[in-house]
Write a structure and sequence with these properties.
Length: about 150
Amino acid sequence: MRRDGKLSGVLHVLLHMAEVDGPVTSETLARMMQTNPVVIRRVMAGLKAAGTVRSDKGHGGGWTLARDLASLTLLDIYHGIGSPPLFAIGNRREAPECAVEQAVNEALDASLDEAEALLLASFGTVTLATLSQNFHRRLAERRAATSSGDRHDH
């Protein structure tokens, strides 16, 4: 099953942007994410509409964060990229006539709705500041391991 990596990729881009002092161009972000600048612009347009990022045109322009990392949650970003489906599973048919399939749909719908609510609530508790802190901790650990000669390249 192919997973949708859009949220993960956008979080990656936003954390890189937080490390840069000043605007970052779509071309730079595209190279970072190994994609086309048009893809970056489409995704960033949704985040701009949500108030997550802003853009400046012209020489020296590009994308910048519009909000502090501590005020941005995974839920904010998820909504900013259009709230894509969270699960790949679903009903075979939405309005079946078969009573067995109706029972199956009811059970799946209830479980999936509950799981989605839990996942979205969890997204609302994780900020980009938390992710940034995690990144910086990992970077410091990697540097310490490298300087002590204790390398673990996984």
